[in-house]
């Protein structure tokens, strides 16, 4: 991939799969949710079949095929998006999400459907492959509580608050866009008015050897 001087911060979510620091919002495809009706019908059909019968085996294969179609569609979406972001940006900043922890909450189904863990893994190995920089900031960074314009710390906000006004400078913020900008700044990718970097210098990801980093090469779309 050719070098570029662009960088971005990413805020992952469920309403939108990702919001970038430039305000771009990427909708969540919700592949599993969209296939629920078809999957439910296939599972009900399976439950009605006699055990160890040929019809039951056919029904079981239909359920498995539906699950595979959902997984394939999700994987293709994540590959396309991660490659696009790598192509357009020399450096990318993301939050260190505890996906396994979230998978044990009431949001488990939505988190699984979103595929955050797979997406972050793709960004990681593609950054290494293409010589890009991927910076992960601590998950306790208060990205949704700080005004990305003046730095005022406004405190925690309930999830239903999607827009808020900074009491210090009066800037009206979209919650997710503001968080993405704070992710970018926390990673040291923002620049001051004179062009100097703000925060720590990012470290260039090392190129990955083929087949390493625990991701099968067969699953890696360019």
TrEMBL record:
Region (Disordered), start-end ranges: 37-66, 200-222
Domain Cas12f1-like TNB, residue spans: 116-183
Biased amino acid composition, Basic residues: 49-65
The species this protein was found in: Streptomyces aurantiacus JA 4570
Protein name: Putative transposase in snaA-snaB intergenic region
Probable transposase IS891/IS1136/IS1341 domain segment(s): 4-104
GO molecular function per UniProt: DNA binding
Keywords: DNA recombination, DNA-binding, Transposition
Any GO BP annotation: DNA recombination
Family according to the record: In the N-terminal section; belongs to the transposase 2 family.
Organism ancestry: Bacteria, Bacillati, Actinomycetota, Actinomycetes, Kitasatosporales
UniProt-listed PANTHER family: RNA-GUIDED DNA ENDONUCLEASE INSQ-RELATED, TRANSPOSASE
